[in-house]
Design a protein that fits this description.
The complex is a heterodimer of chains A (285) and B (147). By secondary structure, chain A is an alpha/beta fold. In chain A, helix 11 packs parallel to helix 13. The longest helix of chain B is centred in the middle third of the chain and has 14 residues. Classes of the chains: A alpha/beta (285), B alpha+beta (147).
Amino acid sequence: MIDMHVHPMHIAELWEEDPDLGDAVDGPFGLHGKPTPLENFLVQLEYSKIGHAVLLPLDCTAAHNCVVVRNEALSRLVADHAELIGFASVDPNQADAPKRLRHAVEELGLSGLKLDPSLQVFDIDDRKLAYPVYAACVELDIPLVMHCGLSWAPEGRSSRAQPISLEPVVHQFPELRVVIAHCGFPWVEDALLLALKYEHVYLDTAIIYAGTPADSVRRVLAERIGVDIIDRALHHKLVFGSNYPRVDFKRMVGAVKALGLHPWLEERVFHQNAADLLGLKDGRP
Amino acid sequence: MKSVVTRMTVQTRAETEMINVTDNVKLAVTESGVRQGVAYVTTMHTTTGITVNECLPDVEDDIIGMLERLAPAEDLSYRHARFLPSDGGMAVNSHCHQRAAILGPQVAFPIELGELVLGGRQTIYFVELDGPLLRNFVIHMIGDENE
């Protein structure tokens, strides 16, 4: 099982390395609570039978003067743990973002990019700031996880994260592999439109807004999109993501299992689609 | 009067788990120097419990089964199923809170001649109800150093 949507900011070892991380997590990101040792994180992954977790940092330098887990720290963390896959984050508001991304991938060994327009404060379709970053993703042949839809971060502005804003981007960069996080809730149909039309647009299951994870996942995937549509047209496009620690691994796994997907389709959602997206070979990207 | 608080940490490894902490409590009592008094064992969480029962696997299974029957995870009527701004995450573990309420957060035993007074079949359990997580409980010994 591969979890494509994990926030690593409550891992104590990362807090010990960066004295500013606690304020960034508690402040702009709005995730409150105490960090716990990496061992506790790994135990939770193992219990939920998640073999690989994609860890997503976030560089909010321009908007909030903070970085929620630095690329260098994440690179060191994942280096000794085959079950952890680190993505990079760069701030599109910084002119050297493409250069930083290249460094993160080629020098630090990170495997993809996470962007959050709601919290980093940029326009998804900004040709001057964002397009060079997308071009770098294509050149580096890495996937992009794009936060779309509702932002629970106190400083996040969901209106900046409407998935339909990605349409000109994926039209301009047809080779860009991009995951629309959270199925873009509440703009689910817009996210669906893009995933149906564009070959390299994916959706993740990290859907939490009210009720239990099983409630929100069912309402979006089974009732708004439809399991029949997923089966016929999105069987290779939907990847499992939990949004941990805004929700537990175990509950989001249970929520997707509760859909009662055909075993073949469930295996694709929990593992194969992400493995293909990440280009996993021998368990590593 | 002497008061000693010993803090314990446990890495739980399952969603629901009964962990025998009797030896931890006995050791804390011995090391506290309290010869006559009371030992309180208290969890620091709202989705764990402290309870006493017989240390048999079937008894443990039946207790967990009782908790699952009384507070089923799948009940759709729970109101505690929403985003919790004070956490920054989803509060979707109502059944865990209910199970913790059933078990209670604390037990107490006498201390006599510097040792815990415990029945022959009594085992003190720290009970995980929303794991696996890193958890804490405290053992508070209060009493006299003299017999």
